[in-house]
Amino acid sequence: MHTYDEIFNTIKSILIEEFECDEALVTPDVNLFETLDLDSIDAVDLIVRLQNMTQLKVKAEDFRQIRTLDDVVKVIQRLIAEQAPTA
User: Whole-prediction pTM value?
Assistant: First the structure.
């Protein structure tokens, strides 16, 4: 799970299956809180799921900046890149 599409599709599946979001609404620019009606408890649950999937620590300050699904994907991509071994 490293490409944008892989990360997006994984998170999209979580939102649809676990949070019962309407698949038609789950697009990169969807607002997680206004359009999908996620609340702070849902956001914490999503963070925990993402941390378990990636084995990466999502910092609270990273998640405070998130508004859209695209934002989530970019944070996960950055965390994966930061953990990648350097040559």
Answer: 0.86
